[in-house]
Amino acid sequence: MLNTVKGVKDVFDSDLELFRFIENTFVKISQKFGYSEIRTPIIEYTELFKRGIGETTDIVEKEMFTMADSKGRTISLRPENTAGVVRAYIEHGLFNNAGLSKFFYIGPMFRRERPQAGRLRQFHQIGCEVFGANSAMLDAEVIIYAAQLLENLKIASANFEIQISSVGCENCRPQYNKKLVDYLTAEKNKLCETCNIRIYKNPLRVLDCKEERCQSVIVAAPKIIENLCDDCNIFFEELQGFLKIANIDYQINKRLVRGLDYYTGTVFEFVCKEGLGAQNTILAGGRYNNLVKQLGGPHTPAVGWAAGIERLILALTNNKSDIKNIENPVKKIFIVIDKTIKKQGFEIFCNLRNNGIDINCDYECKSFKSQFRLANKLKYRYVLILGEEEAKNENIKLKDFDCGCETIIKLSELTTKLKNL
Q1: Domains in the chain with CATH codes
Q2: N or C terminus of the chain with fewer C-beta within 10 Å?
Q3: Which pTM was predicted?
């Protein structure tokens, strides 16, 4: 027997209902905020992720699924989608469009990680990217957009915390990096082997290390938010002002750095307070003003975020959100047909479906008892009963499983009556 590959899973039944609920809610919120959908390929040239995400990040160094094509060029399954959206933005000249370019996306991502709760090798993300404005007001709106999404997903604000910070810009980051390298070099004997390499390749990545032996060193390290230039400080203050106007509660996390190299300025995370263990970030993002130019386009400021659907599902279930009607949506109509009048029953079945009525049946038309048992097992509330007597009198019986009551309906009035349920 063949099983799924390690770290991937099939999605069906109640899990699929949750997926659809999250995706449909996300689409509605995205359209409300003026975003249009973009779909990029799940494979890209590896160079895109090396240049976009950063060669010294864990994702590029350890986690990508990479292969060679027939011409010897390396291609990779996408580990995230910002780089792909930026590539599409440049390749199709979308920077020539008037105003902001606002995109949302939904799709699978791939990382070679150790599978655990909320972390898979094929996982699914929803996310957004906005190009064309370097504005603290826009950063605030992007965070508000994310907060409203979680609210509409029935993840109560009491169950998560919004953490914000700034990772500086090309003016203040070099000076901070030097200060950080000096500090880490003095403490290098206390750091893990990987962080000792990172000190000189990418010192900010040390601050994102989860190794226990590195934590005490990281806690006492210089904080980038305390070493910002005047412009970055003003921008960060403006962001907080806009969030307060919108009544968005947030915490400043001085240790917050994102795991990808392209971030500049604003960074933020939505962190679950309980129930998700170590993988407790359910949505994260920030500003990346240099990435479009870095990948060959014109200088274009940008900001965005992404959220893992599997993590959102964990947040829904672990925080006891009201998901009963999401996992088990009310199914509408099941029709029970006497096998002696299959043709007349099938005609009614087709007419109802053609008129927009959700309906199902037992296509083998077994005994009434068997058909009732099936309807109950499939969790249908309403059952239409078409027996010989009903057909002869040109009516049909409607049974409500919730209350046990039955109603006789004329076939000529059936569609109207069912639409009024």
Answers
A1: 13-172+228-324 (3.30.930.10), 330-419 (3.40.50.800)
A2: N
A3: 0.87
